[in-house]
Amino acid sequence: xxxxxxxxxxxxxxxxxxxxxxxxxxxxxxxxxxxxxxxxxxxxxxxxxxxxxxxxxxxxxxxxxxxxxxxxxxxxxxxxxxxxxxxxxxxxxxxxxxxxxxxxxxxxxxxxxxxxxxxxxxxxxxxxxxxxxxxxxxxxxxxxxxxxxxxxxxxxxxxxxxxxxxxxxxxxxx
Length: 174
What we know:
The protein has 6 helices and 5 strands, in the order βββαααβαβαα. The chain is mainly α.
């Protein structure tokens, strides 16, 4: 897509901020109005638009992509997104530990154990761990605790959590 706008701006609107191109509101791919919850994020999105040269390359616009996904997908399919994120808890990457080599086992312990402890203490989600790749069943209580936490997020942070969870294979890491 060719860049046809000259000026990028951030405007304060009801409920947050907007990004405009030559005075026209930036919209999502589904043509929904984008309301950005805070000025720093609006400025980051505006900077992505402003950095585009002759051709607009969405791959170079991660903040815009996150905002559009939150607006077009998470906001319209909230329950499905929550279920998908919670589904990762059932087979969370950090519940599957190596048996060897010893340095990997040590790194897993040092890196993942504090995360699992944090989940248990702060979220009430106690995960079962195993050595190897054979499936381990997570408790109903742990799954519910994760679901309760995820459901409290607004659409934008939930979108970020979804992306981080999918990339890492772990809702705990996300």
